[in-house]
Amino acid sequence: MNSITFATVQFLMAQASERASGHPLALFPHLLAVVVYSVVGVIILGGSFLIIKRLMPFSVTKEIEQDHNVALAIVIAAVIIGMSMIISAAIL
């Protein structure tokens, strides 16, 4: 498994270096796109979490921090992971 992963990484790095064609600024648009999409994804994730927090009939912060509701913390973590997966698939 590790050799396959390593070979894949080497192949992708070779393709990236061929596309760069020696010019130092050739990868700049791609790096800028990564940063922009990352920021957009984080903003969407934060907004979706605030919407979920608003729709709850109780205070999520109070339940997790003061009442130590571990079950709610696990559910909220699962929702965040699920939203992250949906957002990343939508951005790609």
Q: What is the topology?
A:
Blueprint: H1 2-20, H2 28-55, H3 60-66, H4 70-91
Helix pairs in contact: 2-4
Molecular structure report:
This protein is mainly alpha-helical. It has one domain (23-91). It has four helices and no strands. The chain has helices spanning 2-20, 28-55, 60-66, 70-91. Helix 2 (28-55) runs antiparallel to helix 4 (70-91). The chain starts with a helix and ends with a helix. The relative contact order is 0.08.
Report the mean per-residue pLDDT as an integer.
Answer: 82
Approximate helicity band: over 70%
Strand content: under 5%
Identify low-pLDDT runs. Answer: none
Keywords for this entry:
mainly alpha; 4 helices; 92 residues; single chain; 83% helix
Summary, kept brief:
By secondary structure, the chain is mostly helical.
